[in-house]
Specification:
Blueprint (H helix, E strand, L loop, with lengths): L1 E6 L11 E4 L5 E6 L5 E5 L2 E4 L8 E4 L1 H6 L9 E3 L7 E6 L1
Antiparallel strand pairs: 1-8, 2-7, 3-6, 3-8, 4-5, 4-7
Pfam families: 2OG-FeII_Oxy
InterPro entries: IPNS-like_FE2OG_OXY, IPNS-like_sf, Oxoglu/Fe-dep_dioxygenase_dom, Plant_2OG-oxidoreductases
GO molecular function, one term: metal ion binding
Length: 94
């Protein structure tokens, strides 16, 4: 399954949320992006913005791996934010 997320420029990004906080039901999620920051992960009680590394693919663990590993590997809570100056696009493959 593939999901394409389009986040238009937003003059007041603090008032908008692109995608609400969630975990993925899949085993693994692979994310391609257009190098515009906005993916945030909930880590140690706070939201952390993922770094944009050129030519990289982001991969995170979903609910299925957490269940199959009996909790050894945790599904990551994440969300998507809009950007004030640039359009953000991400392609998630589950």
């Amino acid at each position: 399954q593939k999901k394409i997320n389009y986040y238009p420029k937003c003059p007041q990004p603090e008032l908008a949320l692109g995608v609400e906080a969630h975990t993925d039901v899949s085993a693994l999620t692979f994310i391609l992006h257009n190098m515009v920051p906005g993916l945030q992960l909930f880590y140690e009680g706070q939201w952390v913005t993922a770094k944009c590394v050129p030519d990289s693919i982001i991969m995170h663990i979903g609910d299925t791996i957490e269940i199959l590993s009996n909790g050894k590997y945790k599904s990551i809570l994440h969300r998507g934010l809009v950007n004030k100056e640039k359009v953000r696009v991400s392609w998630a493959v589950f």
